[in-house]
Amino acid sequence: MHSAQDSTAIRPVMRGRTALELAFWLLAFAAILLFPRKLIILNEIAILALFALSLDLILGYAGVLSLGHAAFLGLGAYTAGLFAKHMNGDPLTGLAVSAAVTGLAGFLSSFLVLRGTDLTRLMVTLGLALLLGEAANKASWLTGGADGLQGITMQPLLGQFAFDLAGRTAYLYSLVTLLILFLIARVIVASPFGMALRAIRDNPLRARAIGVPVSHRLVTVYTIAAVYAGIAGALLAQTTQFVSLDVLELHRSADVLLVLVIGGTGYLYGGIIGALAFKLLQDAIASATPQYWQFWIGLLLVILVLTGRERIRAALTGISRRLAFGRATAGSAP
Hints:
The two termini are 30 Å apart. 77% of the residues lie in helices and 0% in strands. It is mainly α. It is globular. The relative contact order is 0.17.
């Protein structure tokens, strides 16, 4: 049991974390004024963060490996693009349709993906992504094939805010969507459902022995992750008004894995932090050395693995706790 002194000591740390979170999101929204020339890349960061969040739900919390998560990103992008081009250009309606289509695809494919071992899951998810990519390439009459899906025209968001070249509406649209889905994901992982997922991740046999419906929980979280990835793809299609076969390529799945390697798995901010670091590093290094930017990012990943992200995180946590305790002690001193 924790003593009253321990509880008192924890409160400043929790308040510090809440203040840090609030400052983070305020800064994210203030970026539209602070970095008006960087809104396009900031929009890409928000979309990549949502994509990474979707993968973290199954990898970090349920322990399900996937090497073809881009299948849902691409499916959501093509669904939103085709819906806007042939039916209705309203962004929110297209977002809902993409979520429904990818959710159904995630539910149906989960029964195949979740069978077998981790290696089997890797191969099955990769195979599904490759099949979907080849299908999009062959159906050029519908998807545009190698030329991409063109002619997408989006209506103003909420009937008021048109998508401008500077990316203001696009960035705010993606950021608000990211925030809403982040808060929903936080409720999910903090619920008994989320605790059951962590139990499955740590030991599926023990979780099944204590009565956790393992298959049902995995199918549910896989479907939710597919919805999140599909919404990320829809945002990408709507804000760029273009969809290409690139959204289904293997490097999309590899990039989101790198994002989680950088930011960490098993906590929701890992995907956001990783996306921010990955895109900013990619932009900065590609500007300096366009031909060798992948080498430097690879070198960073090697350093992370050798140093150990847990050591870095533990050191930062220790520093923040010392600062919080120092402020609490100074505040209670006569």
